[in-house]
Amino acid sequence: MKNTTLMTVVGCIAFLASTTAFSQTANPPDLDRDGIPNISDRDVDNDGILNGVDRNIDGGTARSGPLRGRYIGDNLPNDSSQELDMDADGLADIAVAELDIDGDGLADSAANETDIDGDGRLDGERQETDIDGDGLLDNAATETDIDGDARADDAASETDIDGDGLADGVSGEVDTDGDASTNGFDGDVDGDGLANNSDADMHGTGVINDYFQTVGDAAYAPDASVAPTIAYVSGEVRRILQIPATDNGLRVRVSAYPFGTWVYGDWRYLSADNIQIYASWAYPSSDPSQLKVFVKWQYTGPYSGIVEDYSNPANYVISEESRASAQFPGGGFTFVSWVPSQPAGFYYIAPDQQATGFAPPYESLRAALSSYPGFESSQYYLTFSGFFSSTPGLPGVQPIVNLQRTIMQVNRAWYGQLEAQQLR
To answer: pLDDT > 90: what percent of the chain?
Structure first.
């Protein structure tokens, strides 16, 4: 009899245990026990702070309900690396099915969802460095889904990498990956861990870059059809500009249009921090060894006003002066030029934004560039010029990049004042 009773008790305990286990798995999580499942509860911990602005969505002191006055949940802020499910809805924040990370009722991909992780910092703010609150900084190489929408940043289906409601590539999207570094100064524009000059899709739009921003592909021959020419010209540009074979920043294109007896095209070098140097190249079709990689075309025909004269290749020669251009986005152009037996020089025009209330960075640029040989500047015209060295010859690519980087840093500090005052 006792054994029977004991077996009955054991059986009841087992049943209750199995029933409890079933209940826990069958019923969705409800942290504050208010009868509203966490997945649809606007205040998961019942602390009176709605999920969308609660710095710790699933942890706080309940202000009402059956657990009133008790601290429930965890002590992990939303942006803690240990917080894996900030709204405690049973879906991991990085899960494909988790479409509302902070549980505020707004889908992470919604245009009006401006604070995906509910940490009180808007996704577009410079101070927001972890948009999806997963503990990985937005500019970290290991952060592959910046806005936590379960679409990889470099996936073709990801059209808004930082989840700010602005499609990648539109003119208003100035910080594609939302890492507080504007595209013009960002060495990894789309935040996929690949430096711009090694990234075939540096803007994260799903469109392969050609590095030639102002001329469409129709202007150039398909690369496969002119591969030997590209290889030859690339080798010469690398040799002359001392670009290592391991540096992926060089791109050479061949023009699709004939121009007399010339084979010609453009080349562009893009540094890891988005500084560009580019020029035209050309050689007589009868003698590739006469290749010139810094071509400036000079019109020698009659100034007749007749269109045919200006489109006639016979009326053009390669100027004695060679020229290349260098720029960083938003920073204007620097022209690099030289003639035989002369040192290479540069010429830069600074931006003028006096209407904003900030004087142009004339003194800062003059101080930064004055060590170059033959340096001259004009405060009235905001121009700066000098030579790369006092000896004849062309510098390699690095001195040109260094010059541009110096100019960029001065301008960036200056523009930073404008951004701080929201005058940009």
So the answer is: 21
Instruction: Identify the top-confidence range among 112-116, 159-163, 197-201.
Output: 112-116
- pLDDT score for 332: 64
Among residues 247, 400, 417, which one has the least CA distance to residue 335?
400
Confidence at residue 26, expressed as pLDDT on a 0 to 100 scale = 54
Q: Per-residue b/e over 389-400, b at no fewer than 16 CB within 10 Å?
A: eeeeebbebebb
- For 79, other C-beta atoms within 10 Å of its C-beta total 22
Kindly state whether residue 195 falls inside one of the protein's structural domains: no
> Is 174 contained in some domain?
no
| Residue 112: inside a domain | no
Residues 250 and 243: beta-carbon distance below 8 Å: yes
Instruction: Look up tokens 């870059």; give the residue.
Output: 209
Banded model confidence at residue 205, pLDDT cuts 50, 70, 90: low
Residues whose CB is less than 8 angstroms from the CB of residue 136 and which lie 6 or more positions away in sequence, other chains included: 81, 130, 142, 143
Lowest average pLDDT, out of 172-181, 217-226, 310-319, 334-343, goes to: 172-181
Phi/psi of residue 407, nearest 5 degrees: -60, -40
Mean pLDDT of 335-342: 87
* Greater model confidence, 192 or 85: 85
User: Which domain range does residue 286 map to?
Assistant: 217-420
Q: Which two tokens stand for residue 361?
A: 């960075």
Rounded Cα gap, residues 209 and 22, in angstroms: 54
CA distance 381 to 350: 9
Which segment, 7-11, 93-97, 298-302, is predicted with the most confidence on average?
A: 298-302
Domain count, the chain: 2
Residue 113 lies in a domain: no
Return d(Cα 41, Cα 34) in angstroms, integer: 9
pLDDT in tens, 379-407: 888 899 999 999 998 888 999 999 999 98
In this structure, how many other beta carbons lie within 10 angstroms of the beta carbon of residue 60?
A: 23
